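Section 3.1: Structural characterization of target chains.
Under the original work plan, the team committed to producing a structural model for every single-chain target entering the pipeline before any wet-lab resources were allocated. The record below documents one such target. The sequence was received from the expression subgroup and is listed exactly as submitted; it comprises 291 residues.
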Amino acid sequence: MANSMTGFGSAEGPVAEGRLQVDVRTVNHRHLNVQLKLPPMFQDLEGRLREILREHIHRGHVTVSARWIEEAPREGQLAVNVERAREVVTALKELKKALDLVGDVDLGFVARQPDVLTYHTSDAPSIEAEEVVAVVQRAMAELVATRQKEGEALTVEIDRLLSCVEDELAAVEQRAPERVTAERDRLRESVAMLLNGKKVNDDRIAQEIALLADKLDITEEVVRLRAHLAAARDSLSQPPPVGKRLSFLGQEMLREVNTIGSKANDADIAHRVVAMKGELEKFREQIENLE
């Protein structure tokens, strides 16, 4: 069953004594394009995560975002920069004197100034790759499920569009012999009118009718179009990716329909051709969403 290229998955779990949330989003793209938005301490895991994505996704723009819900604890200590505090106090006293201000230098104000109080943390917590992978795998499972569900809906709609084309094509096939007969009768009447009662050369008329019938014949186009329709339905039942193949088949089907239209020379067939082209345009729009 075909998959949609649009989906979303999210999961959270324990990592390095903290709690990590991973979101995976996918949208349409001609190829597989991956964008990772990870905390700095996860950079060494990028290769592993890309492998996981490629196992499940063949086409689409993929964005993977990871953030701490509860950041992993770190050891650290508070430090006082006495020199920086002295600079702040001296500057405040000079300002007081220059502007003839009143009041004392406030300790709380000095402590809030940049670099007076600093908190030094230890190195980043040790990250266990399997903990991160476990969260990513759960997010991917949800993503795959949403892509499959939407893919099922798209498959139903695409199958309906193919049926509409088949119905119009059946009507064209039924009309085609009648069109040749009508053209034959029209040709006979035109020749008879031009000859104004003179004897008609039946052999010559038969030859012209044969040439006309060959020119108007759409048998090959109909056969090829039916083959493309069958191939499209078969592709829908195959495992992904199928989008590129369906895109190619859509182009080929439109080519055959256009050729039928160029040979139509008949109002009813021309009307059916317009209808088929409309359904194939909808087909093209829908398969743009398929993986």
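The first strand starts at residue 7 and ends at 15.
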